Amino acid sequence: MLNMINNQYLDHIYKAWIKNRKSVSSSWDSYFKLIYAESPKDSPSNSSPMRVSSSKFMTSNLTADKRSFFLKESIRGKSDSQMQGDQYLIGALDVIATIRAYQVLISCVKFLHFLASSYIHVYSFCLKARGHLIADIDPLGIQNSESAKLQNTANLAPAIVVRQHLKGMTEADMSREFPLASLTVIGGDKKSLSLREILMRLNKIYCGHLGLEYTYIHDLNVLDWLREKFETPGAWELPEEHRKWIWMNIMRAVSFERFLRRKYGTEKRFGLEGCESFIPSIAECMETSALKGVETVVIGMAHRGRLNTLANICLKPMRQLFTQFNPIALEGFGSGDVKYHLGTYSEKLLERIKKKMTIVIMANSSHLEAIDPVIVGRVRAEQVEKGDSKHGVKTMAILVHGDAAFSGQGVVYETIHLTNLPEYTTGGVMHIVINNQIGFTTDPRYSRSSEHCTDVARVINAPIFHIHADDPDLVTYCSKVASEYRATFHNDVVIDIVGYRRNGHNEMDEPMLTQPLMYKRIRNHPNVLSIYSNKLLKEGVITEAFAKEEIEKYMSHCEEEFKKAQTINSIQMNDWHDVPWIEFFSNQSPRKKIPPTGIDIATIKTICIAISTSPKDIECHAQVLRMMDRRTKLMKSRQVDWAMGECLAFLSLLKEGHPVRLSGQDVERGTFTQRMHIIHDQNRDKIYKNMLHDVFPRQALYTVSNSSLSEFGVCGFEVGYSSYNHNTLTIWEGQFGDFANGCQVIIDSLICSGQAKWGRQMGLVLLLPHGMEAQGPEHSSARLERFLQLCDDEYIHVPGTEPDALIGETAEQIMTRQLFEINWIVCNPTTPASLFHLLRRQILMPFRKPLVIMSPKSLLRHPMAVSSFEEMGPDTSFKPMLPDLSVKPRNVKKVLLCTGKVYYDLIVERQEQQLEDKIAIIRIEQICPFPYQLFIEEMRKYPRAEIMWVQEEHKNQGAYGYVRDRIALALGIPLEEIKYGGRPTSSSPATGSRIIYKNEYDNMMTTVMKLD
Predict the structure, then answer these.
(1) Where is the chain membrane-spanning (predicted)?
(2) What gap in Å lies between CA 193 and CA 187, rounded to an integer?
């Protein structure tokens, strides 16, 4: 007995056919002639009534894998004798192929026309067909305008339709019963059905209000599971109480939009009108997921429908929403944001299952899909903290997309591709598309090349449900199935709610300018509440009295909340926080002292030994052994290099119970082979050692993971991770600092301004390798000037001298206040000790700020770029400015101010020209916030010296434009007295020519070392 036709069996039959076509059954003969595209005139069966009549359907390009897969699916579970019968292969197998055609969602019209030509030809055609394009999923009837007519006709009189398209077929053929193979469950308990009943049931399932995409999934268990959910007779039917619950959600969604339109008719709201079925959809996702163990749902969405979701899903007090429409004062630290960008953090008792669920909507700007990786990172962080990171049972991400953005924004693809990566997975993401069938004013025919806006999700085998938005029952059922799928298979799933947009892009926009025909239909189209209410009234599920009472009750509640909003005089920023840092926020103060960041010498030695000792049972690469030897020598001299300083920061934090997460391209070994935290065995696959694991008993979790080749998505992921867990040192490292260009939206919209707009603190660290080493324009500059330009510190008063400054503030207290008030910290350190203290300070500060570090390349192994144990020992801390201790101030004629790698170039040049007693070199390790007090105190030593800022970047780049004003303010001198030493202006960040590089360097050093 055979359970399934396999490739070996198929090959055996094929070889026999090649030798002698008459040696196989006529059905196999027809099949192979079809597959290998023999023309009808050459076919021995040309006179057969089954002949192929049109060469346009030939399928010679079908792969053997596809043919084999179809046959496997078609005859799974059949006996050998069953498979051999011509009657089965020509009759039942053709019907099975018909079923398969529906499952791949073949166009009903094309299918029936085609079937008239050749019954057997369904084999090849169905593998190509994509008939979800004909499903009746558009409430406006613009897409596939003939689909609704087809469904009505086919359902009412299938025999007539079949006669029209199947010449030669009779009523008897329609009444004839065919066996149902294991690839379908449309018969329920029945093993066979008439062809008429098969077509009726398939039409309803696959060509009605649902366009179902799933047959590209490779896992047969998943295919079977989905078929049972959609093909089983009666599966779609929902109990009356469930449908009443759906009606309530539809009613609230529609009524809320009506209320806003009446009260705030001239305000932008980015309403949900036309896709209100989204509200019961997301509510069902929560209810079903809660039954599967989900306790927290984190939602990311653009502006469309945000207010409705906040009010009806998160149960955000409406008065707080309505105050956002009022011109009243904003209380709290920051500038705030428009109402449809805000988020929330709340607990809700789910209506049907009576379970509590935490619901988070993360605030985000209108950069549409930029929030996607942030949400996924936020969810991953919570899963790791709760020990839920394997399958994501307790915490789930829901991403809500617009149709045009889902297909148009590349970060969607970057985010989706994280779904199965070990250190980035969340056990599946729920994607819900609010499909308006339009992007701003762009027709979907001109906004994407793919058939559907959701096609990108096919790359990870996510099932996709395209659903008619005016069919709330089906929307809800699909949402239920999608939630069950995610919980069962731990993969992404997409719910595409196809509706329309009743207004323009916003409520003030005139859509008739660009879509006149669409909006003529919309104006005459009833809303979903009217459609669904009429349906439920006819079926006796609700009464008119019930509907009227519930609508009045809800509108009355809206009115009461509106009145309360008029009595509120200010908007509280903390009402919109989307992270649960209540205790952490309450303890924050600019007057709290930052503790010393140094550690005891014994811990330093323990860590140095651990990272300098080759792992046991691992065959190390020779380069790793050389690195270990270098570290051992440094350790014996009580010194560390850059990578060792980083390890000291990480492991000391791990020892103290603070997790560390390092993510980015090639971070495990480091772009420049400097880190080597993961040591791979040279002879055994997947055998490796994490050098920072198990150094201390019960140390916290250290995660280091090479990411996908993505900046936008992965950096956004780490933003989300750091937004949730303030106790974890979270780091994203660019392969080169230049590559931060790829995530500029994340940097601009979320990192540098997140606290000002939404009160969101995060301690994310960006490590961006930076420095001119003649490596070309795209491997030199992390664009330090961009980060400094986005710093929000003022340079009107020296800190500590403002009119409202506290009397008696010390330099340390002033710096703490500067750190508390700045939007982020930007540093270009020159020593391993500086890096060590910076990373530890990130966690030990009583508040959180993003930290941008211009990290080195050549300095990673520079013999001068080392630090002593004592610089990181007890009671030591980060020094924002490093003075020149090698000179006698009274002899100095020129003070060179600099930051980063150029310091070592200046040291070498000064020594070669024997100017050690004439030139002082001062390093600014922390550029922003500028260390005014330390700088002023140090510069008092050089009252008559010439002052020059030196940088290797071009004059219009680097730190010069930022520090010049602050140096002048600190010293009380005109800008002209601050000389510039460096490269001239340029549109390119660096040259790619070593000759030009050398000439630039020589000219710069000549200028810098010249004494007047």
Answers:
(1) none
(2) 7
Residue 543 is assigned to a structural domain of this protein: no
858 neighbors 906 (Cβ within 8 angstroms): no
857 in a structural domain = yes
Look at the chain and report how many structural domains it folds into: 4
Strands 210-213 and 296-301: unpaired
Instruction: Note the pTM of the prediction, 2 decimals.
Output: 0.87
Handedness of CA 576, 579, 581, 582 (dihedral sign): positive
- One domain, residues 523 and 606: no
CB 494 within 8 A of CB 217: no
The answer to whether residues 886 and 857 belong to one domain is no
Cα separation, 138 vs 464, whole angstroms: 16
Q: What is the per-residue pLDDT for 195?
A: 80
Is 993 domain-assigned?
yes
What is the pairing mode between strands 210-213 and 464-468?
Answer: antiparallel
Judgement on whether residues 111 and 250 belong to the same structural domain of the protein: no
- Through-space distance between the first and last CA atoms of the chain, rounded to whole angstroms: 99
875 vs 595: CA distance, rounded Å:
9
**What are the tens digits of pLDDT across the range 448-490?**
888 889 999 999 999 999 999 999 999 999 999 999 999 999 9
The last residue of a domain, from among 872, 902, 937: 872
Q: What is the spatial distance between Cα 324 and Cα 333, in angstroms, rounded to a whole number?
A: 17
Compute CA distances 685 → 512, 621, 638, 679, 837, whole Å: 62, 14, 36, 12, 37
CA distance 418 to 378: 13
Tens of pLDDT along 258-306? 999 999 988 888 889 999 999 999 999 999 999 999 999 999 998 899 9
**Tens digits of residue pLDDT in 820-873:** 999 999 999 999 999 999 999 999 999 999 999 999 999 999 999 999 999 999
CA 728 from chain centre, in angstroms, equals 20
Say whether both 858 and 944 belong to one domain.
no
Q: How far apart are alpha carbons 535 and 247 in whole angstroms?
A: 11
Residue 786 counted as domain residue: no
Supply 1003's token pair: 């000219």
Whether omega for the bond prior to residue 929 falls within 30 degrees of 0, making it cis, is yes
Backbone CA torsion sign across 186, 192, 193, 198: positive
CB-CB contact of 565 with 318 (8 Å): yes
Q: How far apart are CA 14 and CA 712, in angstroms?
A: 50
Element housing 827 (H / E): strand 825-827
Residue 567 has pLDDT above 50, yes or no: yes
What contacts 8, CB < 8 A, 6 or more positions away?
none
Nearest alpha carbon to residue 895 among 984, 812, 996, 978 = 978
pLDDT band, very low/low/confident/very high, at 161 (cuts 50, 70, 90) = very low
Alpha helical stretches, state H, 275-334: 278-291, 306-312, 318-323
pLDDT at residue 45, rounded to an integer: 38
* 621: CATH: 3.40.50.12470
pLDDT digits 0-9 by tens, 236-271: 999 999 999 999 999 999 999 999 999 998 888 888
What does 919-972 look like in DSSP terms, one character per residue?
A: EEEEEESEEES--HHHHHHHHTT-TT-EEEEEEEEETTSTTHHHHHHHHHHHHT
- Write out the residue range of the structural domain in which residue 298 sits: 240-322+335-533
Does one domain contain both 267 and 164? no
For residue 442, what is the DSSP state? Answer: B
Min mean pLDDT across 67-81, 323-337, 688-702, 710-724 is at: 67-81
Question: Where do we find the tokens 């270098």?
Answer: 630
Both 253 and 157 in one domain: the answer is: no
Q: Are residues 885 and 867 in the same domain?
A: no
Q: What is the largest CA-CA distance in the chain?
A: 112
CATH number for the domain that contains residue 946: 3.40.50.11610
Same domain, 178 and 271: no
